[in-house]
Amino acid sequence: MFGIYLKRELSRRKKAALVIAMGLALGIALVITVNSVSAGMNQAQDKVLKSLYGLGTDMTVTKAQSAPKAGTSGGPSFKFGATSSSSSSQSSDRVNTQGGQVLASSLVTKVAAQKGVSSAVGSLTLNVTKVDGSFTQGKAKSTTTSGSSSGSQQGGPGGGGGTSSTGAPQVQGGGANFNVNSYSVAGIDVTNQTLGPLSTSKITSGKTFTASQTNAKVAVVSASYAKSKKYKVGSTFKISSTKFTVIGIATPNSSESTIDVYLPLKQAQTLGDSKNKVTTIYVKATDSKQISAVKSTIQKNISGTTVTTSADLASTVSGSLSTASNLATSVGKWLSIAVLVAAFLVAALLTSSAVSRRVREFGTLKALGWPSRKVTRQVVGESMVNGLIGGGLGIALGLAAAYTVTAISPKLTAQLGSTGGGGQGGPGGGQGGPGQQATQNTLEIALNAPVSLTTIALAVGLAVTGGLIAGAMGGWRASRMRPADALRSVS
User: Fold this and answer.
1) Is the pLDDT assigned to residue 25 strictly greater than 70?
2) Helical pair 372-408 and 14-52, crossing angle rounded to 10 deg
3) Which one of 10, 15, 149, 292 has the lowest number of neighbouring Cβ atoms within 10 Å?
4) 60 sits in which H/E element
5) What count of Cα atoms within 13 Å lies in the side-chain half-sphere of residue 265?
6) Are the C-beta atoms of 280 and 19 separated by less than 8 Å?
7) Quick one: CA dihedral 22, 26, 31, 34, positive or negative?
8) What's the number of CA atoms in the CB half-sphere (13 Å) around residue 303?
9) What is the largest CA-CA distance in the chain?
10) 250 within 8 A of 43, measured Cβ to Cβ
11) Residue 91: how many CA atoms within 13 Å on its side-chain side?
């Protein structure tokens, strides 16, 4: 009886049911859209942070760069010996650590032993400035000047005279022609490559390091650097007279890497004259929810270090990605809540209004013996069906909106500011090498709007909640009607 009556009443009041369902559908669709866009923003920010940290890295431990001593520039210097040959080729590499003061390698073990730390690895970042070219020796040449006069004023009687003089020797020709090339090198722990700079890249040609190559003269180079230098697997190059063989080409997963060459950690320490030293310790926590507690533990037990978490890095991300993320998180969610509340109220008011127009119907049913609870159940049942219809329409509209955003894939930019003291380069220098100002990296991220099962479940819950709210108000009003009300409504 309940189902038959329910079907008949919904068929008779199609327009009213559709209006209630559409109101709920719009609110639910907005909630799905905002949640999916927010999830896309979080994924985009994760890509940005992974490009800085490395997959699986929760925090880094560094030491701020100290100010250079008075009277020292801290910049690179190059010395070339003089030769007697007319043309001489010269080449010199200057290797500096970058990214802050060096830390003892023993600190990696100490950090790994802290409570809440799953694993830790050390990395040494270097900046190599290579100057090569040739001198051409100039040649000293003398110039001769001559003059003449007539009459007896300058010469003897009856004759003329002339003079000539030799000037000071002058160097002519010669000079120097030198090229300056600066690039970054990262020494990594080849026994654990899941953390550190190389973990954000994929080997697209050749192979990566093996655990036995802890001190091998091999290198992995970034795809962009290999292209600029025309390197391929098997190519060789020198750093400070040490020859390295390229065994792999690495392509970044999410952004352009700031590292050009990857070497085994021991080789990088030898090049940088930093035996048993690292510049950065990459840390993975056992529980991602306890990162703040792990940070406090490391800072407390290992003094003089700077611990940077993903939350700290997120505060340095600016640009359209940050703006859109703030809008989706704050304005978007509050807007969806406001629209949803309005949809619930409209559904409740429309249901209550529809009940007031059915005075004769409900009064007659009570006169026939229907108890108040049965009348209330009937109204709530109709409202629940309206809510489920609205939920289905809302899910369809929300999925369509999310699919549209993903199909369009609007581009967002993210600017990454420097988080450490002293920049990424050497003293007084930025990432591009000593003497340069610290610069910002600008990344371009495509926005997606993924819809999770949790979001769908939330939409169904909202649909049921909206139906219950509308049915409760309408049912309460219907339960208060008396059979006498039906008689008074008869004209």
Assistant:
1) yes
2) 40
3) 15
4) strand 59-62
5) 25
6) no
7) positive
8) 0
9) 163
10) no
11) 8
**Spatial separation of the C-alpha atoms in residues 193 and 214, rounded to whole Å:** 12
Exposure b/e, 369-403, CB count within 10 A at least 16 = b: eeebeebbbbbbbbbbbbbbbbbbbbbebbbebbe
Q: What is the mean pLDDT of the chain?
A: 75
- The per-residue pLDDT for range 30-54, each reduced to its tens digit, is 888 888 887 777 777 666 656 555 5
Q: Which among 67, 66, 76, 70 is positioned nearest to 103, based on CA atoms?
A: 66
At 224-277, the pLDDT tens digits run 999 999 999 999 999 988 999 999 999 987 555 678 999 999 999 999 899 999
**How many Cα atoms sit within 13 Å of 309 on the Cβ side?**
13
- Say how many residues make up the chain: 491
Q: Helices 14-52 & 2-12, crossing angle to 10 degrees?
A: 90
- What percent of the chain clears pLDDT 70, i.e. is strictly above it? 63
How far apart CA 451 and CA 68 sit, in angstroms, is 52
Taking the alpha carbons at both ends of the chain, their separation in whole angstroms is 29
pLDDT at 436 over 50: no
Helix (H) or strand (E) holding 171: strand 170-172
Query: Are 280 and 61 within 8 A, CB to CB?
Result: yes
Q: Which residue has the tokens 């219950």?
A: 468
Q: Residue 316's closest CA among 48, 125, 58?
A: 48
Q: In this structure, what token pair is assigned to residue 182?
A: 């600066």
CB 176 within 8 A of CB 136: yes
Could you give the CA distance from residue 115 to residue 469 in angstroms, rounded to a whole number? 49
pLDDT over 50 at 418, yes or no = no
Closest CA to 220 of 254, 185, 183, 258: 185
Q: What is the pLDDT at residue 426?
A: 34
Q: Is-contact 247 258, C-beta < 8 A?
A: no
Question: Is residue 463 pLDDT above 90, yes or no?
Answer: no
What confidence score (pLDDT) does residue 315 get? 59
Mean pLDDT of 274-282: 92
Token readout for 204 is 């697209």
Amino acid (one-letter) located at 61: V
> Which residue matches tokens 């890095």?
313
Q: How many alpha carbons lie under 13 Å from residue 255 in its C-beta half-sphere?
A: 26
Enumerate the β-bridge partners of residue 127.
96, 184
Count Cβ atoms below 10 Å from residue 80 Cβ, excluding itself: 14
